[in-house]
Design a protein that fits this description.
alpha/beta; 483 residues; FAD/NAD(P)-binding domain; 3 domains; single chain; 16 helices; Enolase-like, domain 1; 24% strand
Length: 483
């Protein structure tokens, strides 16, 4: 793709133009191309996006050996075989393989196999239905892409750093550096108490770092049920990490390679690296939102078909709409948005009612998440506090997972807990949270129950296999019945 010799950049018309080639943008393109719409995808970095190279895949590749070893240590007859430290070099090499060494050739082949046209470069809106691409590589120049039906913004989010003087000179880690480091720092300070903070603290502590976690609030994982953060904190502490709650960073400097952290309480902590896992910001600051009347750098408000408020041609899918900053939820939104774009392009009515084909209803009712620490924490739907704030009349039902036969077989001394939140008026589940080894594989059954609003009376007839950890469903239902 080369620029013409004229003074005006070359212009090409498509049915759909997608900004961003991460999992969300790829899925929008896949759905529109499958329906026969011509589609262009613009990407300024690697095709495959944050998830493939700096988030989901590398972080879980780092954590899998950590969790597998922890599980093995709890099984007599196997535990003696896994004594000693992890082979950090081998773990990092395996991580590198899951990122394809940060090369996107395979992802490019997949995207081009859908029939979409890929433009590498910086894409910006330059008016309604118009994207101008500053092309990188040998082609260079600029290309103007116009969209007959839709532009989909799928540019994701980036790590948000605090406003601390001189932070750039410190060269702090964000989630990208934490998942991509090629060696374990001797001492690592992690600032934050959410998913990235807990997962990376778990991974690097096991890989040889001495980890200190600084949490501004009073607990870890404060968007889940309180016991989730408590149990993860207990396990991290037992593994050797130090966790300090109610602590903020007042200043940070780097002197002779050493990071010096001063807390709001006046304490000084030395480290080799510092990771700030203090939230996310939308990647919308330099995509030309001002040319269509929107605020640069803002989260984009959308309806349930993922169409941006006040713009009948513009869609915001995935992290940029701030509904649920999770890859699986963004891909779900992409399927909804792609179907809505195709339907509107055909001039057919959109099914935007609750649970309709073009409504991302699950964003409101049944968002699942797994934190891949040891122990794992998994949840879907509303916590007890969230359900009460929403005005539902609910009851929490708690079960100790050690009472489940399958948990005892899974590991000696199994520690875990489950809570289901029951709507007492509708007799359905509003949410479920599980903490314990291996519980991440159980959360989809709960997601089905919450999303489908399965009545409690009917769940009695969904018989869990014995002896598996999924028998927790029976224990929960029994506890609800007998209360």
């Amino acid at each position: 793709m080369t620029e013409t010799q004229s003074t005006q950049p070359e212009s090409t018309a498509y049915d759909v133009v997608v900004l961003g080639a991460g999992p969300v943008g790829e899925n929008v393109a896949d759905r529109t191309r499958a329906a026969g719409l011509t589609t262009a995808v613009v990407e300024s970095e690697l095709v495959g996006g944050e998830c493939s190279y700096w988030a989901c895949m590398p972080s879980k590749a780092l954590l899998r050996p950590v969790v597998a070893r922890a599980d093995a240590l709890r099984v007599p007859g196997l535990s003696r075989s896994v004594q000693g430290p992890l082979d950090t070099g081998a773990v990092l090499a395996r991580r590198n393989s899951f990122t394809s060494d940060w090369k996107d050739d395979g992802q490019v082949r997949w995207l081009e196999g859908t029939g979409a046209d890929l433009y590498r470069g910086r894409g910006r809106l330059t008016g309604p239905r118009t994207v101008t691409v500053t092309v990188t590589g040998a082609a260079g120049g600029r290309r103007v892409l116009t969209a007959r039906h839709a532009v989909a913004v799928c540019t994701g989010s980036r790590a948000r750093l605090p406003d601390l003087p001189g932070l750039d000179e410190v060269r702090p880690w964000t989630s990208r550096e934490a998942t991509g480091a090629q060696s374990a720092p001797g001492r690592l300070v992690v600032v934050g108490g959410g998913v990235v903070a807990t997962e990376m603290a778990c991974a690097w502590q096991a890989l040889g770092s001495r980890v200190t976690v600084l949490v501004r609030g009073e607990s870890l994982l404060n968007r889940m049920e309180p016991f989730a953060g408590e149990m993860v904190a207990e396990a991290l502490t037992e593994a050797g990490a130090r966790i300090r709650t109610g602590t903020s960073v007042k200043s940070v400097t780097r002197e002779n390679g050493t990071v010096l952290v001063t807390t709001d309480g006046g304490d000084r902590i030395e480290a080799d690296e510092i990771l700030f896992a203090t939230g996310r910001a939308p990647r919308t600051d330099d995509i030309g939102l001002e040319t269509v009347g929107l605020e640069p750098g803002s989260w984009l408000a959308v309806d349930d078909s993922l169409r941006v408020t006040g713009h009948d041609w513009l869609y915001a899918v995935g992290d940029v709409n701030h509904r649920a900053l999770l890859t699986h939820q963004g891909k779900y939104q992409a399927r909804i948005a792609g179907a809505a774009i195709v339907t509107r392009a055909a001039g057919e009515p959109v099914q935007a009612e609750e649970w309709g084909a073009h409504a991302a209803t699950a964003d409101h009712a049944a968002v699942p998440q797994v934190v891949f620490t040891d122990p794992e924490a998994a949840s879907v739907g509303l916590s007890l506090a969230e359900a009460e704030r929403a005005g539902h009349r609910v009851r929490a039902v708690d079960v100790d997972l050690s009472s489940v036969a399958g948990a005892g077989l899974y590991a000696d001394g199994y520690k875990g807990r489950a809570r289901m939140v029951v709507d007492l008026e509708e007799e359905i589940l509003r949410g479920l949270t599980l903490v314990g080894p291996g519980v991440g594989e159980l959360i989809h059954s709960a997601t089905v129950a919450v999303a489908a609003r399965v009545p409690i009376a009917r769940l009695w007839h969904a018989v869990p296999s014995y002896p598996t950890i999924s028998e927790v469903w029976l224990r929960l239902l029994e506890a609800y019945r007998d209360a």
